[in-house]
Amino acid sequence: MYNFFQFVATIILVVSTSAAIAQHQQDSVIKELSLKEVQIHTIRKSKQPGTTFYQSSLLASTEDILARVEGVNLIRRGPIGMEPVLRGFSAGQINVVIDGMRIFGACTDKMDPATIYTEPVNLKSIDIKYGGDGIGTGATIGGTLNLKLADALIDSNSRFTGSLASGYYSAATAVQNAVVMNYSEKKWAIRFSGVYRKGGDYTDGENKKVDFSQYGKMNTSVSGKYQFNKNSTIKADFILDDGWNIGFPALAMDVGYAKARIASVTYERNNSAQFMQEIEAKIYANAVRHAMDDTKRPATAMHMDMPGQSHTFGAFLQFRLRKMGIHNFKVKTDFYYNSVYADMTMYPKDAAPMFMLTWPKNHQKVAGLFVEDEMYLSSMSRLGLKLRIEAVNAKVTDEMGQDQFSVLGYDVHRPVKQILKNVNISYTRFLSSVLTAYLSAGFNERSPTTSERFGFYLFNQMDNHDYVGNPLLKNEQAWNGEFNLLFAKKDFSWKLSAFSSWVAHYIMGKTQQSLSVMTIGATGVRSYENIPSARLFGAESSFSYQLLNRHLTFNNTWKWLRGEDNEKTPLPLMSPLKIMTSVRFQHRTLSFQVENEICSKQNQINIDFGESVSPGYTLFHIRSGYGFVIKKHKLDFSAGIENLLNKAYADHLDWGAILRPGRNIYGLLTFKF
């Protein structure tokens, strides 16, 4: 503790003594360096040329977009509900928030990450910050994925606008429909969006049906905004997301239903003449219900019911102060309360049902204070400092759950209280009008998740073990470092990133020979334990070039990652080198795009976790589009072929090495008004 505060004090001393009065340089380069923000197509197309690379159509899912972003990978257990990974960090190591709101899944098997409860039609952008850059939304060692909601648009010149889209995808005989509508008066507006997705079992690259890969999903959102004056607005958002009969071929069970209800009210004020120039205050609440289902699985050894629920409410207040000398302060205070509960009822043949709490009812109360200071040292350099302190109170409130853990020798009657400390410092240097360097480093902590701390006999299909939580786990602590170099001109940009993280008290499952399995056929029981340390490192690049008067756009991204523990054993679920290239021709309303996706072989594997060597693969996709104008309305037709050569392949992060869809021909019709 003393060393940490000594470290923070040293940083503050260096910052305060080395700063000089500076000019404020307005440069879009720093915006690209400080975060990765992918704009989303809703009613109007984004003007960013790279957006079409990340979002192939209006009906592209949130997961489709994330899969293309450098630094992001997805753990796949089924066709939807994929778990995001930021530079090798996942689950409780990262924050996945919706418009700054904390939301927690209700499934003990991670079938419902927060990303599944949004759709691109209700988003305006996806903001990704890695490592300590992401501590503004909560303590984290791996970063933050913020799904920013689209606002209702107040525009008296366009009172009623919208779009309708409908598409068909051959691999899963899937239909997808979307609607976006915006109605505006002079001082207020309301926006509605909806998506319906339904697909059957898809066909893989070997022309075989993949059983239990079907899904059904509906998402609707309503956003209203009222403008008090030119500086102040209030808005309300509500999302309703329902999924049903969602297959998970890599697991022993599917999803019977997954339901989320998300609501918030936000007040915003921007006035450069006042001391508090920017103010944002939000209150929110969300509820998630989820149930695993094995009734459609043949030859099930024993039927089980596994429902779960999660409830969260919270609030935050953040404001940016008027610039004081070289300092530009941003302050945020936040609080949230989360309660989760999950159980399992087993129905053995010729015996009475057996009941068990897989997540005994427990809650966590978290309060945090975040301070950011962006210092303009000169017209050519900036220094950034981010500090966050967070108080955590976690407790099992269920008497049966307390008794369950007493069998394992743990006393969980008293709450777990922790203080998490996070600090990040960054330096930006404008080397020239087109070349910028960015360096950041920091110390970050995160507390264990509900499963890691209080989970009770959670089956892991990957390594075939039951897992039990450990209430005595230490916090993971990470030293993160990153270096970025960006070259940007009018029609050309290139960004290169290198990063490394050293994590103390890394949490992994360790086999406990003294415990007996609960799941029929399981190899053994593991509990979550702290190992001395782990190291993750890698590099990424993104490249964009427009030529022929911007009729032709070339995009390329690649990402490479390695991870190992203190004994040099590879960490599980580390993605190999991936390269994605896109060439797009655009002339007026006609577009044609060719894509190539390359993934290398992964032989850096963790055998103890159930991993095996994953072969590399190469994929080709083609996409096209053409637009018509009909009485001032626009009709767009898009068509394409994904996995053009019908390659039989699976990604290294795909559980069970279940083959992904083969050749997928799709068509999409969009009407904009």
TrEMBL record:
Locations listed in the record: Cell outer membrane
Coarse class of the protein's main subcellular location: membrane
Family matches, as SUPFAM superfamilies: Porins
UniProt domain TonB-dependent receptor-like beta-barrel: residue ranges: 201-644
Entries under Gene3D superfamilies matching the protein: TonB-dependent receptor, beta-barrel domain (2.40.170.20), TonB-dependent receptor, plug domain (2.170.130.10)
Recorded topology in the membrane: Multi-pass membrane protein
PROSITE patterns for this protein: TONB_DEPENDENT_REC_3 (PS52016)
Signal peptide annotation: 1-22
Protein biosynthesis among keywords: no
Keyword terms of this UniProt record: Cell outer membrane, Membrane, Signal, TonB box, Transmembrane, Transmembrane beta strand, Transport
One CC-aspect GO term: cell outer membrane
Any GO MF annotation of the entry: siderophore uptake transmembrane transporter activity
Ranges where the TonB-dependent receptor plug domain occurs: 60-143
Single biological process term from Gene Ontology: siderophore transmembrane transport
InterPro entries with a match to the protein in the record: Beta-barrel_TonB, Beta-barrel_TonB_sf, Plug_dom, Plug_dom_sf, TonB-dep_rcpt-like
PANTHER family: OUTER MEMBRANE PROTEIN C (PTHR30069:SF49), TONB-DEPENDENT OUTER MEMBRANE RECEPTOR (PTHR30069)
Similarity section: Belongs to the TonB-dependent receptor family.
Name the record gives this protein: Iron complex outermembrane recepter protein
Organism: Pedobacter nyackensis
